[in-house]
Recover the amino acids of this structure.
């Protein structure tokens, strides 16, 4: 099929390459004129100098070229960039067809998950066609053919199955899961915990501490998601525990690395600049805290991180802040 791919960051280039290698006709769109020129000429992304994309991929800065006659749209833009891109698609007045979200975040201003943002802008007639892929995956590994397992989801079961078929390869296994809201929340909220784990490791708190952070972090993520009507078992799977484990344990995660840098003395702005890519957990933290108050769900780890990042709590005071809370029975 012809696939219009929106976004040429690490993940966008990785998945566009994967889809083209399966024989799909991929037209990849970016607003970065220089990057589009470089990719068109060399098929090599600056973040993957040893990987060449198939010659069949077309790179363009013209959105209409990417979407014209496409049978599927896949996006890998930033959370903040998704709404403006969706508005441009809406202005083209296209008939609905499958739209796959791969970004992981929550819109700060509205607290909406990304599938809900897409439905709000494109319209209810697009809802059955909106889907996602998410789960534990580093672009650096997937693009080199290392094995992995993630999930595919949609509001519609037929579109969910289509997404799983389109993205599955002999090295990448896609499991269907119809809880699209739960998967969207899991992908966004695990980045918050990854920042905390990066901080803990930088401060040499030990693996016992990070195991506790991950477990209790997953607990507060699940509690918020259930309050919003998601299925709790989603968070025991690839999109929940799987993605959390990966993101919280490796400097390949930009959120984990951001936490390391802040714990090492960098300001949040300095850390974001050094990483050079969007740190979604920084923004999701604020959105999650608003949701926790809206749904009356305590999220002490998220709240503690927000206070650290915004100068309301010293990093050295964070452990007493968490450890001196009243202990309650562990309900899962």
């Amino acid at each position: 099929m012809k696939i219009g791919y929106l976004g040429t960051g690490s993940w966008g280039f990785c998945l566009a390459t994967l889809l083209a290698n399966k024989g799909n006709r991929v037209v990849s769109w970016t607003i970065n004129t220089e990057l589009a020129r470089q990719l068109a000429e060399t098929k090599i992304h600056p973040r993957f100098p040893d990987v060449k994309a198939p010659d069949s991929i077309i790179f363009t800065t013209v959105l209409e070229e990417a979407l014209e006659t496409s049978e599927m749209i896949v996006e890998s833009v930033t959370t903040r960039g998704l709404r403006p891109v969706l508005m441009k698609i809406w202005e083209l007045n296209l008939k609905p067809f499958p739209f796959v979200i791969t970004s992981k975040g929550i819109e700060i201003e509205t607290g909406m998950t990304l599938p809900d943002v897409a439905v709000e802008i494109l319209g209810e007639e697009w809802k059955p066609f909106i889907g996602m892929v998410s789960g534990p995956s580093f672009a650096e590994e997937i693009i080199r053919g290392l094995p992995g397992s993630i999930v595919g989801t949609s509001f519609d079961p037929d579109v969910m199955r289509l997404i799983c078929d389109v993205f599955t390869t002999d090295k990448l296994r896609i499991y269907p899961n119809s809880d699209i809201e739960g998967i969207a929340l899991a992908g966004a909220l695990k980045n918050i915990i990854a920042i905390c784990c990066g901080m803990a490791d930088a401060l040499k708190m030990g693996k016992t501490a990070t195991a506790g952070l991950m477990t209790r972090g997953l607990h507060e993520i699940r509690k918020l998601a259930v309050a919003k009507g998601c299925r709790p078992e989603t968070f025991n799977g690839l999109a929940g525990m799987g993605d959390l484990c990966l993101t919280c344990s490796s400097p390949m995660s930009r959120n984990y690395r951001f936490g390391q840098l802040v714990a090492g003395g960098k300001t949040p702005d300095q850390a974001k600049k050094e990483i050079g890519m969007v740190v979604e957990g920084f923004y999701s933290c604020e959105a999650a805290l608003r949701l926790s108050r809206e749904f009356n769900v305590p999220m002490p780890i998220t709240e503690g991180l927000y206070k650290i990042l915004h100068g309301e709590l010293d990093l050295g005071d964070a452990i007493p802040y968490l450890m001196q809370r009243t202990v309650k029975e562990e309900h899962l």
